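Researcher: Go.
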Amino acid sequence: MSRWSMWPWPGSGTQCRIRQPSGSRVSAATAAAIRECAKDRDARADEDPEACPVQKPYYRDLTGNGKDELIVGIEFPDKMMSVRVYTADPDGRLNRIMATTETIISVELAGGDVILRVPSGNHGYELITAWSWDEKQRTMLPTREQIARVPGGPQAPGSRDPAPVPGRR
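Model: Structure:
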């Protein structure tokens, strides 16, 4: 069984259908919340912006073809977020070109990249991953990763400043 979601596509004046495969990671509670918030999202957004797990969609040309892709985030109850990117066929069908589910600190759009900041396994650091369009594979792929120190995190090895001593200022 497949589930479908409807999204407005900029400049088309129509709704596009997104097929959700039956083996997806969307829980029944999240799916019910998505259906409920889709009924009257704009009216409810002013009352309780946290009520809808589907974040405001963004549109940006990520493939370089001059047409905007749909970028959307879906929050899960366990503090995870699924970030998905769709591109439209000429007949209005949407194709998913990126999907990842992680504990997200932030999502940024820079040029043609989707940049995700997630907690790393090391205290005081974040993992920054840039997802970029790969023309040959016709999908968004993680192309660059960087581990970055979080302000106020532990000192870098080889630093000349003394490490703070607990209990002292």
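Model: The first helix runs from residue 28 to 39.
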